[in-house]
């Protein structure tokens, strides 16, 4: 792509570097601009949450549709018990990590706040949103550069991840309180969710729907991250592993 | 209120000696875990407290609550009706009829204004000005509003009065409405179930008599002593649930061995009731013990929330028997195919760009 050709280095640019004497052309040597976007707590939270979501989806699905029945004495097995234990343990970690992430939004850099709101009144958000949609629809070939998330990603993350996660945490603790009892703090803090959503069965049902929203989000998220990492003008995967995002060209627009 | 019979009067009338009465009070104090110094208090209460007047109304319902109630064994329904409360109006049980029967409501309302309990079985339909349920020539909703105006508290018997039950299921042609949506200014105790357990019904009345106050209620207005735990929490098949042993079909080995009925759509995990502790018919059995899953009859809208034989509610608008999982899996498949197509187009575009660059 022509944009990637913009910072091409020549042999003389390699002088007095560790690449001195090598051929810049065969190495496809380029100069890259990197910025520190995702701070360590954000990255840690991201991967912890990803692992939790994997465990939560698998165990949650198995709670709703259990594995084939086991035979023998019930004292020999604790299969559903373990599945539920894993679900609750992962849910606790996910919820605490999410709470930590909310706190970090106040302490971290501007990109730590991106997933918690839609910049509704900002013109650049709407322009960027339309632009990104056009790029994804193959109508425009050259996308804009973004230090943080692009506006389409902000929208998807806010609605499909942040709001859904809050919904899952609230309904999840409300359902958890059914086991801990009416006098538990879980019931006092989250028990109101159940009558609001039309009863216990409806809460289970909507919690199950939430899982599918998260699964669809993860599918699209993984695909777009890989696609953007290859085809966009900035890096994504390395940004969420070492925190640094590099841009493949230095052009102002 | 001098002409009102107290408990002591009733007991003496039934041939109980003063000596036996004092013994009874001492035993009651022991049973309640109180010291001997409370015996005079109990004696005093029994000697002075009048029996609780109760008006029992019937709206749109099947009388299954009354059928259940008269089978109570601890305490016996006859003891509740004849000794503990003064059941002044119940068009199902009382002998009088017509004008004589309806006149009792007015009499109780003037005589015990603000001091009687209104028990409601069934609910009022509100469509067509309430014409779908006529009591004594008038819509039931009018009788209900009138009787509730002077009541101390309202007991909503059963799922009909508490939540609406079958007549309020979609599309609810008569607009059958739960009691708490019609009576807004009185404390309401909901005792849901279709029907509620007999001992739960008499237990609620006994509690109100003994302690002269409403039982503790949960968020949804149900007495906590009977509705604070799920069927699942006290189910004798719970060990099979935790172990992962389920009935897969009603005629399999698991069914014969009494495995957990979770996969057969048992609503025990989402139903708050005392069936698995108190059980039915003098503690003989309850649905799960008989090999069938719980229907969740004491939960709101249980008729509308999907099959009784599936854990997950059905989803409307996606075919007849679509579940959330089927809809989710199909959507995931469509999204996956879309992403694959997008990836293919992206790859082709990139190859074309590369070629352009190289030229």
What can you see in these coordinates?
The complex is a heterodimer of chains A (253) and B (359). Chain A is mainly alpha-helical and 253 residues long. Chain A has nine helices and two strands. Chain A has helices at residues 24-27, 40-64, 79-107, 123-136, 151-180, 185-190, 193-196, 200-231, 237-241; strands at 33-36, 244-247. Chain A has a two-stranded antiparallel ribbon with strand order 1-2. The radius of gyration of chain A is 23 Å and the shape is elongated. Chain B has two domains: 51-227, NADH:ubiquinone oxidoreductase-like, 20kDa subunit (Rossmann fold); 229-313, Cytochrome-c3 hydrogenase, C-terminal domain (Cytochrome-c3 Hydrogenase, Chain A, domain 2, Irregular). The mean pLDDT of chain B is 86. Classes of the chains: A mainly alpha (253), B alpha/beta (359). The interface between A and B is large, with 51 and 57 residues.
Q: What would you say the CATH architecture of the largest domain in chain A is?
A: Up-down Bundle
Weakly predicted, low-confidence segments of chain B = none
Query: What is the helical fraction of chain B, as a range of percent?
Result: 25-40%
CATH superfamily of the largest domain in chain B: NADH:ubiquinone oxidoreductase-like, 20kDa subunit
Tell me which oligomeric state these chains represent.
heterodimer
Shape of chain A: elongated
Q: What structural class do the secondary elements of chain B suggest?
A: alpha/beta
Trace the largest sheet of chain A across and list its strands: 1-2
């Amino acid at each position: 792509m022509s944009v990637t050709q913009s910072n091409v280095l020549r042999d003389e640019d390699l002088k007095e570097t560790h690449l001195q004497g090598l051929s810049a052309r065969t190495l496809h040597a380029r100069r890259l601009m990197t910025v520190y976007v995702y701070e360590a707590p954000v990255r840690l939270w991201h991967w912890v949450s990803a692992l939790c979501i994997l465990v939560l989806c698998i165990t949650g699905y198995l709670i709703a549709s259990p594995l084939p029945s086991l035979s023998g004495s019930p004292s020999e097995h604790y299969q559903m018990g373990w599945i539920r234990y894993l679900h609750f343990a992962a849910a606790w970690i996910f919820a605490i990590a999410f709470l930590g992430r909310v706190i970090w939004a106040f302490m971290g850099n501007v990109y730590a706040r991106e997933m918690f709101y839609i910049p509704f009144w900002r013109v650049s958000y709407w322009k960027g949103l339309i632009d990104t949609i056009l790029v994804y629809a193959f109508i425009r070939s050259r996308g804009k550069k973004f230090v943080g998330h692009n506006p389409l990603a902000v929208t998807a993350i806010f609605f499909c991840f942040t709001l859904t996660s809050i919904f899952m945490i609230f309904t999840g603790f409300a359902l958890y309180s059914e086991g801990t009892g009416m006098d538990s703090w879980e019931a006092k803090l989250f028990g109101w969710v159940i009558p609001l959503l039309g009863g216990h069965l409806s809460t289970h049902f909507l919690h199950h729907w939430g899982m599918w929203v998260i699964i669809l989000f993860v599918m699209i998220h993984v695909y777009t991250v890989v696609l953007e990492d290859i085809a966009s003008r900035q890096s994504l995967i390395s940004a969420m592993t070492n925190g640094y995002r590099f841009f493949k060209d230095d052009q102002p627009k | 209120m001098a002409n009102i019979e107290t408990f002591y009067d009733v007991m003496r009338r039934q041939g109980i000696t003063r000596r036996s009465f004092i013994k009874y009070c001492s035993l009651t104090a022991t049973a309640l875990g109180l010291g001997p110094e409370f015996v005079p208090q109990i004696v005093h209460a029994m000697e002075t407290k009048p029996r609780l007047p109760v008006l029992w109304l019937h709206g749109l319902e099947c009388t299954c609550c009354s059928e259940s109630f008269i089978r109570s064994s601890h305490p016996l329904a006859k003891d509740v009706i004849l000794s503990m409360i003064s059941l002044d109006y119940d068009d199902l049980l009382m002998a009088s009829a017509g004008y004589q029967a309806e006149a009792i409501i007015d009499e109780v309302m003037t005589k015990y204004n603000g001091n009687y309990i209104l028990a409601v079985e069934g609910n009022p339909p509100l469509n067509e000005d309430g014409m779908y349920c006529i009591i004594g020539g008038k819509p039931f909703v009018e009788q209900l509003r009138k009787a509730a105006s002077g009541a101390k508290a309202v007991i909503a018997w059963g799922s009909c009065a508490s939540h609406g039950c079958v007549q309020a299921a979609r599309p609810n042609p008569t607009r059958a409405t739960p009691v708490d949506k019609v009576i807004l200014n009185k404390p309401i105790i909901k005792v849901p179930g279709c029907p509620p357990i007999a001992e739960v019904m008499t237990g609620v009345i006994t509690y109100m008599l003994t302690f002269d106050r409403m039982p503790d209620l949960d968020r949804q207005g149900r007495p906590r002593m009977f509705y604070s735990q799920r069927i699942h929490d006290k189910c004798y098949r719970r060990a099979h649930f935790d172990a992962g042993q389920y009935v897969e079909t009603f005629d399999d080995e698991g069914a014969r061995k009494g495995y957990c009925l979770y996969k057969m759509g048992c609503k025990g995990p989402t139903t708050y009731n005392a069936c698995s502790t108190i059980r039915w018919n003098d503690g003989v059995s309850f649905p799960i013990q008989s090999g069938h899953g719980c229907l969740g009859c004491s939960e709101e809208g249980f008729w509308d929330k999907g099959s009784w034989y599936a854990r997950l509610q059905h989803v409307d608008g996606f075919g007849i028997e679509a579940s959330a999982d089927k809809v989710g899996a199909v959507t995931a498949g469509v999204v996956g195919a879309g992403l694959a197509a997008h990836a293919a187009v992206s790859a082709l575009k990139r190859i074309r760009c590369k070629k352009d660059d190289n030229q």
